[in-house]
Amino acid sequence: MPAPLKLMVATDFSERSDRALRRATLIAREVEAELSLIHVVDEDQPRRIVEAERNNALAILHEQVSTLREMDGVSCTSRVVIGTVFGGIVQATREESPAVLIIGPHRRQELRDLFMGTTAERTIREVSCPVLMTNGPPVAPYRKCVLTTDCSDGSRRALGAADSLGIAPGAISSLMYVFDAPVLRLAMSYTLSEHEKTDYLDDERREAMRHLVEFAAKLSIKQPTLIVRQDKSTPASEILAAAEEQSSDLIVVGTRGASGFTRLLLGSVAEEVLRRARCDVLAVPPGSLG
Predict the structure, then answer these.
(1) Taking the domains of the chain in order of start, what are their residue ranges?
(2) DSSP assignment of 82-146, as one string?
(3) Is the pLDDT of residue 63 over 80?
(4) Which phi and psi angles does 211 have, rounded to 5°?
(5) Beta bridge partners of 283
(6) 207: closest CA among 181, 171, 234?
(7) 3-class secondary structure for 71-86?
C-alpha cells in the first residue's frame, strides 16, 4: 500500500496562514493525505524571547493538531523550527520531503518585493517540491483549473508532476498556451493592412494550436480544453485574464520553461502570476518529479 500524500503547511498563525490550513484540510480529506504543520521562530532575538515564542507556538500547534485529528479526521503532525522564516521553511521541506508545500497568499508590498522578492518567491526558488499559494477562499474542492504551458519539455514535466499529485481530482482542466506575434511588434508593422494583420494572426494562432495539440497528446491529463491566446501585454496577464474569464480556482505554472535563466529575474511568468492571482496558484519547480 503506497504511503499517503504528505502536505506541509507553513503557518505563522495569521489569517493568511489560516487560509492555507483550511485549503490543506480540504485536500487532505478529499485525497486522504496527511498534514505536517510548520512554524518558524525567528532566531535573531534574545534567547528568552525565542524560547517564549517557541513554547507558545508549540501550544498553538498542539491545539490545531488535536482539532484536525478529532474534528476533521485528518492525520497531522507539527513542529517548530528555529531560524529565519525563509531558511526554516526550506530546511523543513528538505528534512520531510513533502509532496506539496502550502502557504498563505502573497503579502503585497510592491517596493520591497521589487528589490528583495517575497519569502514565497525565494522559497519556490529553493525547494524541490511544488508550492501551493492559497489566494482564493477555501470553501470547496477545486472545480476549474488552468494548466499553463510553453510547450517545452520542462513544462511537460511540471504538468506531469502536478497531475500526479491528484490534489484537484474533480476539477475541469484547461490547457493554455500564450503565443507571440512578433511581426506586429516590429517598427514597420504599420505598413501592413488590417487584412494582412488579421491573416498573419490567424496563421500564428493555427500554428500555436498545432503545437498545443501535439503537446497535449504527450500528457496523461484527460481531455483538457485547449486554449491559445495572443500575448498582447505579458504572458502572465493573459493567463490571469483566462483564469478570470473561466472562473478558475486554480492555476498551475511551471517555474522554469524554455529559458532556465529567466526564473532568476523578478517579473518572470510564474512570479508575476503568483503576485497578481486572485485564485490559488500551484508553482511546480524543475526539481519536482514528473
Answers:
(1) 1-104, 138-290
(2) EE-HHHHHHHHHHHH--SEEEE------HHHHHHH--HHHHHHHH-SS-EEE--S--SSS--EEE
(3) yes
(4) -60, -40
(5) 131, 253
(6) 181
(7) HCCCCEEEEEEEECHH
Class of domain 138-290 (CATH, top level): alpha beta
Cβ–Cβ < 8 Å for 282, 171: no
Task: Report the sign of the C-alpha dihedral through residues 49, 54, 57, 63, in that order.
Answer: negative
Q: What topology is assigned to 1-104 in CATH?
A: Rossmann fold (3.40.50)
- CA–CA separation, 246 vs 253, rounded Å? 17
- What's the pLDDT score for residue 167? 92
Chain segment 152-165, per-residue pLDDT in tens? 888 888 898 898 89
Average pLDDT of span 224-246: 93
Q: Which three cell numbers stand for residue 132?
A: 501551493
What pLDDT band is residue 194 in, cutting at 50, 70 and 90? confident
pTM of the full predicted structure? 0.88
Is beta strand 131-133 parallel, antiparallel or unpaired with respect to 280-284? Answer: antiparallel
The predicted structure's pLDDT at residue 153: 86
What is the end-to-end Cα distance of the chain in Å, rounded? Answer: 21
Cα separations in angstroms, 218 against 55, 159, 213, 223, 257: 51, 11, 9, 12, 17
> Cα separations (Å) of 78 from 36, 40, 168?
5, 11, 24
CA 1/CA 186 separation, integer angstroms: 58
Closest CA to 282 of 3, 1, 27: 27
